[in-house]
Write a structure and sequence with these properties.
By secondary structure, the protein is mainly β. The protein contains no helices and eight strands. A hairpin with a 2-residue loop joins strand 4 and strand 5.
């Protein structure tokens, strides 16, 4: 990054929806590195086994996936941090996909901070 360029910060908030998408456009002249943070917040509903799952795709390829039991009371979350280098002239496409069973989605967010 040049000394006069401020680090980039990108985000997408899907709210209670099950898919968040973030597309970072290419930079014409320099490579960039991003720390990516994805977070799914949920709350158990009803009785029985509840779970929540988060899958993260980077440029269409599965980069991370996890399914965990949802805590029976209060809020619960599933979070991940990833790092990616993006060559000059290339976009970065991020998708976070949430699935739940007997749990309500409260929020699904992706952020990408240039390092």
């Amino acid at each position: 990054m040049s000394d006069d360029a401020a680090p980039e910060r990108w985000s997408a908030d899907a709210g209670e929806r099950d898919v968040a998408r973030l597309e970072i456009p290419p930079h014409a002249s320099r490579e960039r590195g991003f720390e990516i943070y994805c977070s799914l917040a949920v709350k158990a509903q009803g009785s029985g086994e509840a779970w929540h799952e988060l899958r993260v795709l980077v440029d269409g390829a599965l980069a991370w996936s996890r399914r965990v039991s949802t805590q029976p009371s209060g809020r619960d979350s599933l979070d991940v941090r990833l790092r990616r280098q993006v060559p000059a002239g290339q976009p970065l496409r991020l998708t976070a996909v949430a699935q739940t069973q007997r749990a309500a989605r409260l929020g699904l967010v992706i952020t990408a901070d240039e390092e």
